[in-house]
From TrEMBL:
<dbReference type="GO" id="GO:0008094">
    <property type="term" value="F:ATP-dependent activity, acting on DNA"/>
</dbReference>
<feature type="domain" description="F-box">
    <location>
        <begin position="225"/>
        <end position="277"/>
    </location>
</feature>
<keyword id="KW-0378">Hydrolase</keyword>
<keyword id="KW-0547">Nucleotide-binding</keyword>
<dbReference type="Pfam" id="PF00176">
    <property type="entry name" value="SNF2-rel_dom"/>
</dbReference>
<dbReference type="InterPro" id="IPR001810">
    <property type="entry name" value="F-box_dom"/>
</dbReference>
<dbReference type="InterPro" id="IPR050628">
    <property type="entry name" value="SNF2_RAD54_helicase_TF"/>
</dbReference>
<keyword id="KW-0067">ATP-binding</keyword>
<dbReference type="InterPro" id="IPR036047">
    <property type="entry name" value="F-box-like_dom_sf"/>
</dbReference>
<dbReference type="GO" id="GO:0005634">
    <property type="term" value="C:nucleus"/>
</dbReference>
<dbReference type="GO" id="GO:0016787">
    <property type="term" value="F:hydrolase activity"/>
</dbReference>
<protein>
    <recommendedName>
        <fullName>F-box domain-containing protein</fullName>
    </recommendedName>
</protein>
<dbReference type="GO" id="GO:0006281">
    <property type="term" value="P:DNA repair"/>
</dbReference>
<dbReference type="InterPro" id="IPR000330">
    <property type="entry name" value="SNF2_N"/>
</dbReference>
<dbReference type="GO" id="GO:0005524">
    <property type="term" value="F:ATP binding"/>
</dbReference>
<dbReference type="InterPro" id="IPR027417">
    <property type="entry name" value="P-loop_NTPase"/>
</dbReference>
Amino acid sequence: MAGAAEAAVRIVELLAPVYADVYQLSTTNAVGVPVSLHRTADDCLQLAFVRPNICKTVTCVNVASGCHCDFLRFLRSLLVLIERQIIEVDAMYVVASRSTDLLPVATLQLHVRVHQEAKLGTSLKDFDFVLCHLQATMLSIVLDNQKAKKEAINSALEDARNNSSCHVIGCRLHPWNNAKPMMQPKQKLHLPDVFHSLTSQMQVGQMEIRDDFTYLARMTHSKKQIFMTDLPANVLQNILCLMNARDLSSLCGVCSLFQHMAYEVVPGLNLVLYEHQRRGLKWMLRRETPSLTSIPQPHPFILSSESESESAVAIDLIQNRVITHPHVTASDACGGMFCDEPGLGKTITMLALILRTKGQTTDNTPVNTSDPGRDMTRSALRSCGSRGRCVNVEDVVSSGASLLVVPDPLVEHWKY
């Protein structure tokens, strides 16, 4: 039931101004300060803090620079949904100190769930600006490297402040000032900048290869034990380069160290991949991991309650309507779509993926054909059953082949 409770709540985090009189209390409390959203008699919005008893007029984080964003519009629409008993929101005001040379950052953490008294059939099309932020992210990658985590957090905060009109952390749907790039003169293509942008956008976690402090303490111990992972990193890398794809796959199951070191090894590839190509290969290998399908996740398009009842209310985030739907989760699927600009080496990256998985077969992932969310999905898609384009999941078998779908000009390029 705890998993159902977690899946029934969506968390939206917005940048907020740092209030000096609330800052000290929020930094001593790890979970932040409870806050609620109120409407004043003159139709202004206020943030009411429980402890201390302080009210603040809602302003965006860039109010000092004359920002004209959609932050106030977001909270106003959110308050209307609360007043109409469509959703319930628990809000926390959190101030975090990033480092000694960076200013503290304040955020509003909104825990949103469906109101039990939401009226069935209510149209929410006027609130798409809020509801689009409630769609669960199923492709997020958990970073293992602490440095990468900090860099990703700082980058997301800066994007929310400077590049997003809603100031929602992680939102890419509402870029700031869409008309501005059109007014600027077109700049010449600078290939190193393109490579850098690719590697920064494709965030795939990289663990620390070895903790030097722990390694040194163990090596100087009187009863030290030597393990294979104590070999120099370049020696381990050379060993991995001598293995074929099947051996690499088996070694990756031994420990996470070999798994992360083997990501960039491609048996049979007689060239060195660029950094963005290595990250692309690593992302695709991760997308083909069978364990992706075993972890239940919140349904991306249905905000359901904790109840398993058929009459439980939920919000359809695609049609923007209150519906009846039991609690539902979703599972990720293996595979993905690798999209890149022309000329940056998609073909080489895909060939590297084929070489990296050569000789391996797919796993028969159990398919739940009675998923309560499938009926809704089918109703929104064009029927293909009558055209003979459907295959029963029970008839799908494992295969060691790689299917390539390419345009005719690319086939000509591959001919010798």
